[in-house]
Every structure is written in structure tokens, then in C-alpha cells.
């Protein structure tokens, strides 16, 4: 497979929009009639034509037609179900098929997520050492059966040896450290090389997060192969390798892509989803919820994520099915128990001390930090990705991944907080210190027994030398994570952004939390601490600050709000911390929005030139439809068909001399009164079929779109009636319709094109491409950044 070709497809995204006056792809689907035409036309999906399934085959679905087609199918099934028992059983089967599909998607996604978690944990530990009783055991499982572990050093046992200890025979000394260091870099480079090579060779679409493309697909765009079986297989394998390599990325975003691949593949088992693109997108919306459900162990948060962040069309039925699929996936993952802690996530924690109103100030401060970091990250990452596209850097994806992996491993190993995986780091930062906790973050000076609180919580204690060392390491880890994540996200390996963003926020939150804790311990007589922070009380929980910081930074980067808060409290099981999370998340969104309304996914959609009309973006300009439509004054006249009077040869000549994917039908060239709209694909298929199957159709035959065939000369060849393929009710606006209303129509109905008329007379056409280019121009951006062929 030619990598240069695929790189060009991925990096330049040469898209072909199947809309009214936009360029036509030879393999685009026959579309068309809003339910008015014949029930059976040649369907390229059933009767393949050359070029079908290639990467140039990008087109937008006709939402109205697809929904109309499904309504007709449903009416037919309901009508037949009254006639026989077999038809009734088929009707019941058809109604149940959606729930069965959701069950299969949940089971498959949950099983894959469990396998990814187990494999990633094992390979991550392999960078540090190997288990002598079985190389397939990770560090924790290896030491489970050992009787020689101590409470303080529960992760040390004779059965597990570091590479330095295995090669040099001792775990102490500079030589053993250097050997372990080199082995860590070696494994990191090997895993990252395998990941990028597999993506390059077998599935170029398996790289990145996948969420920007999922959003585009859910808006009605088709990217063939993006949700295919090869993408699923390669993404699953390379996601494990990329996470294990130690690169600053997470698996949560790519798990949404994996779940959508599962849903797309399983859709082919059911006719009503296989043949209807709109119905399939309902399933993909539910699959996005499943992806977040298995990524975070948050089924409700997953449903809300799909609704808030990725879905374009989300009816109530999809909400119920998303909930069911997320439940099945979470149950499947819980049955597999990948972390061995009977939890769905690695960083499940419970906090025991309640928060106080005074703490809202530092929580809002964390929100401000999260918003600033989110805005800075988006600008820096987009600038870096644009540089990657426009310079020679983009021609060497393997070298880029290897250099970044080597740089990451080289700097990460000396610091224990950057050496551990992102999920382990967050787990450590969320942790609420107990009396016997051996973590460096719990390196407090021992408190007097009289000062120790009764119950689960522990009184605030003064920081010891171990804690100060850990704080310095965390501060360095924060700077490192902030910088390395900018260049890592967007490389040609599967890369999620949830975990790195949460890690940055969790580090900042833990630092602030420890600072607040020490401030409260040494200054209990201050006004802000009086009355609620007495001696011997557990006033401040640093782990809670880490959790709030994680939510704030993730919110700043993605602009999630409701779903993010629900995901975070599902992670911790603490309903009482919703208010701090809400305060930080909203502050983060407000601050980040002050620097730009786009989240990271919308920014990448725009960078790649995808044809996506952002539902959250408002059209604030006062232009009219006549200002945006084509043809413009300097353009050639609009190419149209007349309802009668044109021959087959003339129609074929018009089609061959233009690249438009559809043609308005008018009464005559003089009147330009609009009759309907016909798609190029329908024309070509109908004429081709007529020549093969209908006797007497030749180039001189008249093409008729009227209801009644006009009188013909006795020696005239057989006319070709094509009224059945014409959309008799194309969407139209007048030339003075404000563009904000036109944009709303496109968004809410999922239109591909809209005709512009004046007193019933056809003036021009507006396509989604025209709207996107106009919006780019109004925002002082390059209109050619909307990359169509």
C-alpha cells in the first residue's frame, strides 16, 4: 500500500461533497427523491460500480430522503403484519433488531476495552521489568501470590525483577540504573515503532483520536473505511502499543472510535441499518456513548457525552438505546475486571471529608487555570499540526513518532511521576492519604495520636521532606506534560487527549491542594479557617483538588460541561462533590471561550477541512441567500434540465460537460420556473438502464419529466420518462431569505443543497460547501481551507 497516497488523503483530506452544485464522485450513491420516486433503482451498494469504496468516495447523505425511506419501509411492514402471522413475526423481529444490535455493540465493545486495558497494563510494566514465574503476568499480578511482600514495599517481590536486576544481578548501583534506563527507552521505541508502522501499512485511518471524524460522520458525511474492520483491528492493537510506549496520550478518545467501528460492522447484520445511512448514524451515536462508558466506567456520562459532544441527530429512541448499550458495555467490562479491583476504572477513589464553602475560591482558581491551559493547548497544538502539514515534517511520520517517543522516554524515566502511565499518575494524585500510606505524596510528618481524627479521615499534618521532594517532582512533571502533549496529539498513532489533559489538571490541583492544606494547618486562626478547621480536623483533601483540576483542564480543552461533571462523579462515587466540579468546569469553559469558542475537536475538524456545520456556532452576519448562492455575476449560467424538449443525447452531453452532482429541472429555458431537482447519479443509472432494457431508446429520444407524455411525431423514437427520479419538492428559499435562517435550515434538516428562487423563478443554488466558505470568509479565514475536490 502506497503510504504517500494515504498520507496525502489523511493530511490534505481531499473531500468530494455529494451535493447539488458540488463536484460529483463517480462512485457516489444514488440518492434522491424524498420518497416521491420509484421504490427500486439500481443501488451501487448492491450492484457495485468501479471506484466504489475508494477514499475519494466522500459524500453527504440526504437525511430527508433516508428518513422518508425508513418511514415507507416501516409503513410497509406494519401493513403486511396485519395480513399473516409470519409477517407479524417479521414485524416484531424488525422492532427488536435495534435492541439486539445495541446488545451486541455493548458486548463487543466491553470485551475489546477489557482486552485493551489488560494488554496495555502488561506491556507498560514490561518496560520496567519481567515476571520470572510467567512473562505474561504484569507487575501487580506477579506479586499477588508472593508471601515476601511488605506493606511499605508492596510492589517489590522476588518474582518480579527489573531489567537492571535481571541483567546485572543487583538492583542497586549506577550500572543497574543505566541498564534499566536503556531498556525503558528500548521498549518505548519498539512499541511506538510497531504502532506507527502498523498504522502506516494497514489502516491509515487508525491514527489520532477519531472523535473529530466521528462528529463529521454523524453529521451525515461518509468516510469509507474509517469505521471498517481493518481500522478496528489495527486501532485495537496499535492503541495498546501507543499507550504502553509511554507517549503522552490516552486510550479514552480512541475507544470511542473502536466502539463506533464495532457498531458499523455489526450494522451489516441487519438490513434496515445496512441500507439506511440515517438509521446507521443513530447506532453510531449510541456507540459513542458506549466508548466513553468503557473508557471511564461511566455509562450515564457516556450517554451525556454522546448527546452533548458528538451527536448531530439524537432522537429520544437513540437516548434509550444508548443507555442500554452503555449499561451492557459497562457490565461486560465489570465481568472481565481488567484492573483486579472490582471497579470499572483504575482511578476509583472515595473521599471522606466534606468540602467547605471557602474552598470554592481555589476550585474556581483551578477552573481559570483549566480554561487558560485549554485555550493555550488548542492554539499551540493546531499551530504544530498546521506546521506538520505544511512542512517536510509531515512526510516522515515514522521518524516523528520515534523522535518524540525517544525524547519522552529520555526525560520521563528519571521522574517517577512521568515514568508511570497517565492512568496510574491520576490514580496516585486522586488518592486520599491514609495513616499507613507509603506513597511519597503522603510523606507527612507523623501526627500525635491525640490529633488523629476518629473514623476514616485523617487529621491534617505538616509536610515532611518526602512530600516536598514529591512536590518538586510534580512541578517538573507538570511542565513536561504540558509541553510534550502539544506535539504528541495528532501524530500518526492512536492518541487520546482525555488522560493527558486530566493529568495536567490533576497535578496542578494536587499542588494547590497540598498548599491549601499546609496553609490551613499553620494558620488555623485566620478568619477563613475559623469555625470549620479546628485542630485535629481533616479540613482539606488534596485528592479532591486533583479531581477538580482534572475536570477543569479536560473541560478547557474539550469544552464539555454536563457530561464531564457526571463522568467525574461516576469516577469517584461522590455526589457531594458535584458543586465544586460544576464551579470549576463552568469557569474553565467561560475562560477558554473568551479566547476562542472552538474546542479541540472542532479545531481539528476545521484544520482538516471537513464539511461540518457546527451546531453550537451562531451565524452573526446580515447577508442574504442571494449573496451566497451560485452562480455569481461573473459565473456561467446555471446548468438546468427542462421538463420536456431535451433529448437523451443533450442530457448526456450536459452531464458529461459538467461536474455537478445534481441539476434543477425547469419548465423551459425562457421561464426558468422551477419544477424539481434530479441527481446526476439517478440520471446516469436511469439512462443506462433504459438503453439496456427499454426498446427504442436512442440519443434522439426525448427526455420527459412531465406527468403526461406530450404528443409525439409518428416516426419519433420512444421517449424516456424520468419523472419518477425527480424530487418534486426540493427545498427552496427566496433570494431575500437571511443567511442565518438558511444556515439553521441546513443544520436542522441536514440538507446538501437548497435552491434559490424569486417569485417561483429559479435564480441559483446554495450548497453546504458554499455556506462553509461564506462563513470562513466572514471570519477572515481562507475560504479554500474547506478542502473539497
Automatic annotation (TrEMBL):
<dbReference type="Pfam" id="PF00571">
    <property type="entry name" value="CBS"/>
</dbReference>
<dbReference type="GO" id="GO:0005794">
    <property type="term" value="C:Golgi apparatus"/>
</dbReference>
<keyword id="KW-0406">Ion transport</keyword>
<feature type="transmembrane region" description="Helical">
    <location>
        <begin position="255"/>
        <end position="271"/>
    </location>
</feature>
<feature type="transmembrane region" description="Helical">
    <location>
        <begin position="497"/>
        <end position="516"/>
    </location>
</feature>
<feature type="transmembrane region" description="Helical">
    <location>
        <begin position="99"/>
        <end position="123"/>
    </location>
</feature>
<keyword id="KW-0868">Chloride</keyword>
<dbReference type="InterPro" id="IPR001807">
    <property type="entry name" value="ClC"/>
</dbReference>
<feature type="transmembrane region" description="Helical">
    <location>
        <begin position="181"/>
        <end position="206"/>
    </location>
</feature>
<dbReference type="InterPro" id="IPR046342">
    <property type="entry name" value="CBS_dom_sf"/>
</dbReference>
<dbReference type="InterPro" id="IPR000644">
    <property type="entry name" value="CBS_dom"/>
</dbReference>
<dbReference type="GO" id="GO:0008021">
    <property type="term" value="C:synaptic vesicle"/>
</dbReference>
<feature type="transmembrane region" description="Helical">
    <location>
        <begin position="396"/>
        <end position="413"/>
    </location>
</feature>
<feature type="transmembrane region" description="Helical">
    <location>
        <begin position="357"/>
        <end position="376"/>
    </location>
</feature>
<dbReference type="GO" id="GO:0010008">
    <property type="term" value="C:endosome membrane"/>
</dbReference>
<keyword id="KW-0967">Endosome</keyword>
<keyword id="KW-0129">CBS domain</keyword>
<dbReference type="Pfam" id="PF00654">
    <property type="entry name" value="Voltage_CLC"/>
</dbReference>
<dbReference type="GO" id="GO:0005769">
    <property type="term" value="C:early endosome"/>
</dbReference>
<feature type="transmembrane region" description="Helical">
    <location>
        <begin position="470"/>
        <end position="491"/>
    </location>
</feature>
<keyword id="KW-0472">Membrane</keyword>
<dbReference type="GO" id="GO:0005247">
    <property type="term" value="F:voltage-gated chloride channel activity"/>
</dbReference>
<feature type="transmembrane region" description="Helical">
    <location>
        <begin position="283"/>
        <end position="307"/>
    </location>
</feature>
<feature type="transmembrane region" description="Helical">
    <location>
        <begin position="227"/>
        <end position="249"/>
    </location>
</feature>
<keyword id="KW-0812">Transmembrane</keyword>
<dbReference type="InterPro" id="IPR014743">
    <property type="entry name" value="Cl-channel_core"/>
</dbReference>
<keyword id="KW-0813">Transport</keyword>
<keyword id="KW-1133">Transmembrane helix</keyword>
<dbReference type="GO" id="GO:0005886">
    <property type="term" value="C:plasma membrane"/>
</dbReference>
<comment type="similarity">
    <text>Belongs to the chloride channel (TC 2.A.49) family.</text>
</comment>
<feature type="domain" description="CBS">
    <location>
        <begin position="629"/>
        <end position="693"/>
    </location>
</feature>
<feature type="domain" description="CBS">
    <location>
        <begin position="726"/>
        <end position="783"/>
    </location>
</feature>
<protein>
    <recommendedName>
        <fullName>Chloride channel protein</fullName>
    </recommendedName>
</protein>
